[in-house]
Amino acid sequence: MLVPPTIDDIRAAAQRIHGAVIRTPTLKSKALSEIVGADVWLKFENLQLTAAYKERGALNKLLQLTDEEKKRGVIAASAGNHAQGVAYHAKRLGIPAVIVMPQATPLVKITQTEEHGAKVVIHGIMFDDAYAKARELEAAEGYVFVHPFDDPQVIAGQGTIALEMLEDAPDIDTLCVPIGGGGLLSGVGTAARALKPQIALFGAQAQLYPSMKCAIEGCNLPLGGDTLAEGIAVKQPGELTSSMLQKLVDEVLLVPERALEQAVAMLVSIEKSVVEGAGAAGLAAMLTHKHKFAGRTVGTILCGGNIDTHLLANVLVRDLVRSGRIGRLHIEVEDRPGALALIAAQFEAAKVNIIEINHSRIFSRLPAKDAVVEVECEARDPGAIDHLITLLESVGFKVDRALLD
After folding, report:
1. pTM score, two decimals?
2. Which domain holds residue 228?
3. Per its UniProt entry, what is the enzyme's top EC class, as one word (predicted)?
């Protein structure tokens, strides 16, 4: 039976990994504080060498292996960040490493794991499939399994984050921590409660994968789907972490995909910091459940920054669409000379830039003499596109605007 780590285990882990991981900054965000209605402090774990906190727990585990275990090599299952932490520090310590990753893992995480010297095996759709394969290879080949969250030594390593946060920002009275398998919040919660017994602890979990919420609250919610927060898309949380969090956590808050996208975009635009969906889950929870954090001094962990660049671009553009800065207009026109010029004149008058334009005569339900002009455009503010639509309608065009949910 696994024994939960104590504050002494976490302090020992901090000494053990000192100098081999980055002591990342904990900084207050004035802009996010105003938006959330609380004093918001951010722990920038996305600044680790592997761009994620996971290397803390991985290193603490690897440093306690026996010489015989190091010679056998290690194996891990991961959607990316744990994989890189294990691979990087295993290479540093001269330990052979095999990582099993699910098919949904972003290419950037697969590539970086291979660059750290590990052998990568792609298997299954989700983390749980990769986990089962890794356990199979462990039994067949004799590897030492390094669990991403359900291991006392890994949990202790993750808990070192709380020691640093509360040393840098001792006024923090609330923590809102991303949660998947539960290793991060188990370690951070153990340390935080030992240092400040009255501190409030919230978990932030993707709404599509409420596995830990159901495990500790006894609920039965739908599970599955494509989430931006693939790093915390865990169908089955750990047994040790579930039992620990049932005693530690005040509440697990669910966050919808739109809030995750909004949080990622805000961290780029406001903090100039690239954070993956899982890493932004704490901020997403604050934005979704503002009333729970109003007036508090809240700390959250930007626990990873490994997001595919193409996906990040999509998230940022979608945020511009939702904010009204980018629009797509469907304009019905009579197919006659001068119609496009008249449309363009309204764009100039409204000072809205045309990004892309498509003129369709065939694929339309309009009469044969009419056409549809689809225009993607960008404006300095939402009001400019509203003004543009008014101008277009004033000269006789019918306009529909495509919107995101």
Report:
1. 0.91
2. 7-53+152-318
3. lyase
CA of 174: how far to CAs of 167, 212, 254, in Å? Answer: 14, 20, 17
Which DSSP state fits 331? E
| Residues whose CB falls within 8 Å of the CB of residue 370, separated by 6 or more in sequence, listed in order | 332, 333, 334, 335, 364
Q: Are 189 and 275 found together in one domain?
A: yes
Q: Which of 132, 148, 158 is nearest to 14 (CA)?
A: 158
- Cross-strand pairs, 107: none
Domains of the chain: total: 3
Stretch 47-63: mean pLDDT: 97
Find all residues with CB under 8 Å of 179, minimum gap 6, and list them: 185, 203, 204, 205, 212, 232, 245, 252, 281
In 216-343, beta strands by DSSP E: 251-255, 297-301, 326-334
What are 324-344's pLDDT values in tens digits? 999 999 998 887 888 899 999
**What CATH number has the domain bearing residue 197?**
3.40.50.1100
Give domain status of residue 1, yes or no.
no
